[in-house]
Amino acid sequence: MITSPSSLRRSERSRRATLDAALELCTEKGYGRVTVEAIAARAGVSKKTIYRWWPSKGAVLLEAFTEALVGATPFVDTGDIAADLRTHINGAVRLMSTAPYGPAYAGILSEMHHDDDLAAAVRDQLVGPRVEGAVARLRGAQEQGQIPETADLPLAVEMLYGPVYYRHVLRKPAQDEATVASLVAHVLRSLGAGE
Fold it and tell me: Which residues bind DNA (predicted)?
């Protein structure tokens, strides 16, 4: 007797196919030329299915980018905050410097200036949780005595991520590992780490 896969599995396959199709099309055509219709056709799902799960193509690509970023930039704790931050920031730089993720995220950042719902989703689904994770990792370093208790951790996160996004948004060359190491060292010094 042949049994059909559960609707949950079928939904996950469709979700994954949709995310992959959106990323592939973004690489091939550029963010601006991707449509929900094209994503649906490439993924083998209906437009109705996509709109049931996401309100726009930006939301589809945001989910795909967020999943990739979370996987590429874990907040590890090896006991060495400088090494952990270098690993984390280098992971983000690599992801944003390669197709399909870099072009997809550049398109999302551009579109969110004209789409308040997408802007809110970027803040709620991507930026907010990543900032919380970074602050938590820095707080762990504080508890280990690597960063002074008086350090402004949210500001430190902005100092770490700001240069990465600045280069990405302005389409400047991405930082290399030496530049990331210098950035991390500078931010830690500004916090009074190691004093």
Answer: 35-54
Q: What are the chain's domains?
A: 55-191 (1.10.357.10)
Q: Distance between CA atoms of 186 and 120, rounded to whole angstroms? A: 31
- Cis ω before 100 (30° cut-off from 0): yes
**Helices and strands per DSSP (H, E), number in the chain:** 10, 0
pLDDT at 4: 37
- Cβ atoms 38, 57 nearer than 8 A: no
DSSP state of 146: S
- Report the SS3 class of residue 155: helix
b/e for 79-108, b at 16 or more Cβ within 10 A? Answer: eebbebbbbbbbbbbebbeeebbbbbbbbb
